[in-house]
Structures are given as structure tokens and as C-alpha cells.
Design brief:
The protein has about 210 residues and is mostly helical. The chain has helices at about 5-25, 45-60, 60-75, 80-90, 95-105, 115-125, 130-140, 145-160, 165-175, 180-195, 195-210. The radius of gyration is 34 Å and the shape is elongated.
């Protein structure tokens, strides 16, 4: 016996309502907030200030950059990123003494190559040559073709009367840059100081004829 049309309608309606309730229970409530992913985490005031200081530094707004780095250090005195950033800006603006003071206490292994070379330059500025020689030499062990750094090392070696080492450094530079008159003249001077007068005269004459 076939079900009457009205009964069939009631059954269909009941089935629809049951399916709708099941579907509703599977959908999160609109008031439920999903947990943020790591990339959606809040950026701290400290992180925002450090990024601002970097941007200001890139734009050569050094005074503003220093102010922002100091704001960070006022609330977080041991923040290494702020210390290194501030010391770099101080160094670039010619305040070597303040830059060195800012870096005081920062472990050397926390510095990248740029920071280590800056530290070496600060040692040179203070005439504290031994740690500068160590930093330059260690760096050149890994990057022997950085002629700018090798020239700095050669100069410091000559100032500390390490004449054989300085001569070797200048010779390495001149093999790569044979037409650099200033390097050749420095080389000639060191040869003279080392008592190698004939070679010194040869190099100085060559520098005058180039």
C-alpha cells in the first residue's frame, strides 16, 4: 500500500531538518576565533622599534635611528641587536669612542662579519692593535680575497713593526692589484723600514712612473 502524499511530505521535511541540524553542528560557531598561526603573532614594541631604527639607518637618518635604538635600550639594556645597531650608527657618524663603549660586553661570537670588522676598526682607532690583527686574520682565513681588509691588516702589521708579515700582505695585494700606486708606496715604505733599501727604491720609483 503506497504512503499517502501528505505523509510522504512530513517524512521528507523531517529528514531535511535532521540533515540541517547535523550540518550546523559540523560548522564552527561564528563566535569561535581560530588560534593565530606563528606568522600572525603580534609584533612586539621592541621588534617594531628595531625595524624602524634599521629603516631610518638605511635612509641615513642617523640621529633618529640612534634615538630609536636608545629607546629600546632604555627598556631592555641587554638587547644585543639594539646595541650592535646603535654602535654601527655611532661608528658611521664618526663617534668611535661611543661606538666602542656601546659594544663593550657584547660577546664577539654574537657579531656577524660586519660587526666583527667594525669592532676591529674600533680597536685600531684606539690603537689596540693585537685584537684587531686577530680579527682581521681570522676573517681573511675564510675570505682571503677581501683586499680591503687585507690592506687594513697590512697597515696594522706595519705599524706594529711586523715587517715580514706586512711585506707579505702588501705583496699579496699587489699581485691582485698591480696598478694600485698607494699600496705600492706603502709597500716601498715598509721595505725601507725593514732595511731592504734597494727593493724599496725600486717600488717607490715604480709608483712614481705609473
Amino acid at each position: 500500500m503506497r504512503p499517502r502524499p501528505i505523509v510522504t511530505g512530513f517524512i521528507a521535511c523531517a529528514l531535511f531538518l535532521s540533515s540541517a541540524r547535523a550540518a550546523d553542528s559540523a560548522v564552527p560557531s561564528p563566535s569561535t576565533t581560530p588560534a593565530p598561526s606563528p606568522t600572525e603573532a603580534d609584533i612586539s614594541d621592541t621588534a617594531a622599534r628595531i625595524e624602524l631604527a634599521k629603516v631610518l639607518t638605511y635612509d641615513k637618518k642617523f640621529a633618529e635611528a640612534m634615538d630609536v635604538y636608545r629607546q629600546v635600550l632604555a627598556t631592555d639594556p641587554e638587547n644585543l641587536e639594539a646595541k650592535i645597531g646603535l654602535s654601527e650608527v655611532l661608528y658611521w657618524t664618526g663617534n668611535s669612542e661611543a661606538a666602542a663603549e656601546t659594544l663593550k660586553g657584547v660577546p664577539e661570537d654574537k657579531l656577524d662579519d660586519k660587526g666583527k670588522l667594525m669592532l676591529a676598526d674600533l680597536f685600531v682607532a684606539k690603537k689596540d692593535y693585537e685584537p684587531a690583527i686577530r680579527i682581521f686574520s681570522t676573517y681573511l682565513d675564510r675570505k682571503p680575497d677581501d683586499w680591503v681588509v687585507r690592506l687594513k691588516l697590512a697597515d696594522v702589521q706595519s705599524w706594529t713593526k711586523r715587517y715580514p708579515e706586512a711585506i707579505a700582505s702588501y705583496e699579496a695585494i699587489l699581485r691582485a692589484r698591480p696598478h694600485d700606486r698607494q699600496v705600492r708606496r706603502k709597500y716601498g715604505m715598509v721595505l725601507s723600514w725593514a732595511g731592504q733599501n734597494e727593493k724599496a727604491a725600486e717600488q717607490l720609483r715604480q709608483s712614481l712612473n705609473e
